[in-house]
Automatic annotation (TrEMBL):
Signal peptide: none annotated. The keyword Transcription regulation applies. It comes from Blautia luti DSM 14534 = JCM 17040. This is LacI family DNA-binding transcriptional regulator. Keywords: DNA-binding, Transcription, Transcription regulation. Residues 1-54 form the HTH lacI-type domain.
Length: 333
């Protein structure tokens, strides 16, 4: 089955079918006939032929740091929901937090291999920024704020501040498990939110009470071991992610600490893991799936406008989720 046969069955010219397939003007009557014939025959136009005519691939590259992360999977689900509805296919590029892999995929996608790119970013180096400037297709950054680019990002500073405000009511000595400062959002902004909020309450996050993990359960476990072996009087622990908080709670319980009586613990991110811990984890909820949807909407607008569109920055909201791993200020009085 080809376009000529569709035209013959529909009783219209080949040019009319071509206009229909490429969203050109066709009368409503002829549209209905062509649509019926295509439905009955199961005809699918050649994607290669369409690409040659329109110079569009209908492909979107999504560069992500870790495909088995709950955060990333929620963002990817939101991206997929929107792009699929709009007729795009997705090429997922999983980099396993390898900067060289990220750079390789940006280089691959930048010269019209795809119609646009969503880059779920963690660390943005000079090499990243150089390659992004060379991109000939629209790029949306998800998860970080990068000046001059359309961005969707979380209010990491506010999130960390809100969880700290809750725990400072019943906490005396604070510990914090962070990630690398090269990650501006999770590493820098969340730590700054904790430090500044404690300062407003006349408290201090001592440098010796800060340990660094790498987002994993295992790193949270090891960071907690190191922290509490050195600073056994810490009674409040905030972790930059729920996953690291889960690892920390495991170490604490294995070593006889009661949660929250001896040590109250909180994470950030509201992953499903936090809901099955005992006690359940107090945390901050981010709207990750909505963030992915917003990124996809922004990218499709840029791809379809043809002139670059407006460069938007969207800071997402967050919500405090109180469960059982923190001390209740009312009961503590």
């Amino acid at each position: 089955m080809n376009i000529n046969e569709i035209a013959r069955l529909a009783g219209v010219s080949r040019a009319t079918v071509s206009r229909y397939l490429n969203n050109g003007y066709v009368s409503e009557e002829k549209k209905a006939v062509i649509h019926r014939v295509i439905e009955e025959t199961g005809y699918q136009p050649s994607s290669q032929a369409q690409m040659l005519r329109t110079k569009k691939t209908r492909l979107v590259g999504v560069i992500l740091p870790k495909i088995n992360s709950n955060t990333i999977s929620r963002e990817a689900a939101g991206i997929s929901d929107i792009l699929t509805k709009k007729g795009y296919q997705i090429i997922l590029a999983n980099t396993n937090n390898d900067i060289e892999e990220e750079l390789k995929y940006i280089s691959l996608f930048k010269d019209n291999q795809v119609d646009g790119v969503i880059f779920i970013a963690t660390i943005l180096t000079r090499r990243h920024k150089k390659l992004l400037k060379e991109c000939k297709v629209p790029v949306v950054i998800l998860g970080q704020l990068l000046e001059g680019y359309p961005c969707i990002f979380q209010d990491d500073y506010k999130a960390a501040g809100r969880i700290t405000e809750q725990l400072v009511q019943t906490g005396n000595k604070f510990g914090y498990i962070t990630v690398t400062d090269k990650d501006e959002a999770v590493g820098q902004q969340r730590k700054a939110g904790v430090v500044d909020t404690l300062a407003r309450y006349g408290r201090e996050l001592q440098p010796k009470c800060v340990k660094t993990g790498d987002f994993t359960l295992e790193s949270g476990y090891e960071a907690a071991r190191e922290l509490f072996q050195e600073q056994g009087d810490v009674d409040t622990l905030i972790c930059a992610t729920d996953t690291m908080a889960a690892g920390a709670m495991t170490w604490l319980k294995e070593n006889g600490y009661r949660i929250p009586q001896d040590v109250q613990v909180a994470g950030i991110g509201d992953s499903p893991l936090g809901k099955i811990l005992e006690p359940k984890l107090t945390t901050i909820h981010f709207y990750y799936k909505t963030s992915g949807m917003e990124a996809a909407e922004m990218l499709t607008s840029l791809m379809e406008s043809g002139n670059g569109g407006v460069c938007k920055e969207i800071k997402m909201g967050c919500e405090l989720v109180l469960r059982g791993s923190h001390r209740d200020p009312v009961k503590s009085k």
